[in-house]
Amino acid sequence: MTTPQEDLLPPTRRALLHRIAVAQSEGRAPSLVAAVVRGGKTVWNGSRTSVDGHGPDENVQYRIGSITKTFTAVLVLRLRDEGVLDLGDPLEKHLPGTGAGEVTIADLLAHTGGLAAESPAPWWERTPGSLRPELADVLGEQPYRHPVGRRHHYSNPGYTLLGALVEELRAAPWEEVLRREVLEPLGLHRTSGRPQAPHAGGWAVHPWADVMMPEPVQDLGRMASAGQLWSTTGDLARFAAFLTKGDDRVLSAESVREMRAPAAPPEAADLTAGSGYGLGMQVVHHDGRMLVGHSGSLPGFLAGLLIGVEDDVAAVVLSNCTSGPPVLSVAADLVRIVAEAEPRIPEPWRPATEVDQWALGLVGQWYWGTQGFGLRWAADGEVALEPLSGIGRRSRFRANGDGSWTGLDGYYAGELLRAVRRPDGSVSHLDLGSFVFTRQPYDEEAPVPGGVDPDGWRGIQ
Fold first, then answer.
1. Are the CB atoms for 292 and 309 separated by under 8 Å?
2. More confident residue, 460 or 157
């Protein structure tokens, strides 16, 4: 009897259940619910609860806090892709009069705008949003804490500005735009700005006694785009699949890849912890694996969503307590358990359907000075330049359709790779951002900055 490929093996399922059981028990959480996604499909759901005879399933709503920011970032990237704005635009161009207009949209997305982490007192998470009806109430008289663009400083008011930007450019409330442009196309019918039954209640667990009390639920008002949403593991699992592969109805694969790339200068502590931030997404290094996603918390709730893109595994963990289980670490462990127990099976290798004779004539060994590199052409049309020794700069390149390629990653991201031909049509060398790559080390027939010694190569004199 064979196991369907989308199913997890029983030992893997037990390991996942064990991990969330330990998290709920040691974290003293009233309940904890989780899901795992592989290959774009939910392959496991689990929950633990303190209530006998009741276990929340993938349709029970929990408040997800700052995972809301990733949804807001998707809306902003949609505006960029439509040509409505550029990420380098200052906020003032599209939303004048905020008092923080010099901040660029990219700064707001990456938390590099220098804005305060929180709104002025009283504590916004525990007071009604009606106390902050205007953006000026959210930003306060002194919105900046650091120079614009100099450092990563997480800012809830910054994402409030992004929500206001969406409302300004769409001429509709943020939540209405979110539902129309993201939630409905992706089938996230159990994600909403206000709780919808069935939903969990939020609790505060006493730090020194096994007792708890309910946490009040506050509507965040103007700050909704920074943390208002409620959702389920079922919906967030579908959202994680979208953040992995993209969906042209909402945002292309290239744009979600851009969201996942680090975009903020890390602090020293961030480098030590192995964490960073992209455009509305956290970047986390955990047990040698790079993960992307977001955490969230509001009084009574903790949330975590992480994606192991290379493993094509994602995990969602939600809990209904103010503090307790380390949900982001638990999500990372769920990804690791599946990735290590059942490694991703790669797609079969297939040859190209069409032969690019131009690229085929360039593949093979090249030299930058004396360092050897290999240029490989793949069936998807990309080429990759890699050091033969395994040490050195490497990048992938996308074809431009004119015989040149543009770097996609690494040192040469955005740089142009092109073949320079001699008058007879033969290839003289590769030009990569002005660097010369030749078929032989310091080829005498190719232009080499600094020239080649006329006496050539030699041994010890």
1. yes
2. 157
Question: The tokens of 64 are what?
Answer: 């997800």
Spatial neighbors of 233 by CB under 8 A, at least 6 apart, are: 33, 34, 35, 45, 58, 316, 318
Q: Are 52 and 37 in contact (CB under 8 A)?
A: no
Sort 127 into a burial class: Cβ within 10 Å, 0-12 / 13-18 / 19+.
middle
Q: Hey, what amino acid is at 200?
A: A
The residues, any chain, with a CB within 8 Å of residue 458's CB and separated by 6 or more, are none
372: β partners: 367
Q: How far is CA 140 from CA 137, 159, 226, in A?
A: 5, 15, 17
CA distances for 23 relative to 26, 384, 414, angstroms: 5, 43, 43
Q: Which residues contact 184 (CB under 8 A, 6 or more apart)?
A: none
Query: Quick one: which of 7, 60, 74 has its CA closest to 32?
Result: 60
For residue 77, which amino acid is it? L
Whether residue 449 is predicted with pLDDT greater than 70 in this model: the reply is no
Question: Is residue 2 predicted with pLDDT exceeding 50?
Answer: no
Distance, in Å, from the CA atom of 33 to the CA atom of 389, rounded to the nearest integer, reads 46
> Taking the model in full, what pTM does it have?
0.89
Q: Could you report the per-residue pLDDT of 286-310, keeping only the tens digit for each?
A: 888 999 999 999 999 999 999 999 9
Contact status, residue 161 vs residue 98, Cβ threshold 8 Å: yes
For the cut 60, the answer to whether the pLDDT of residue 5 exceeds it is no
Q: Identify the weakest region by mean pLDDT among 16-30, 157-171, 268-282.
A: 268-282
How many Å apart are CA 226 and CA 160, to the nearest integer? 6
Report the alpha-carbon distance of residue 63 to residue 59 in Å, rounded. 13
Report the DSSP pairing between strands 313-319 and 364-368. Answer: unpaired
Sign for the CA dihedral angle at 443, 447, 448, 451 comes to positive
Instruction: Report the sign of the C-alpha dihedral through residues 156, 205, 306, 221, in that order.
Output: negative
Q: What is the mean pLDDT of residues 74-103?
A: 96
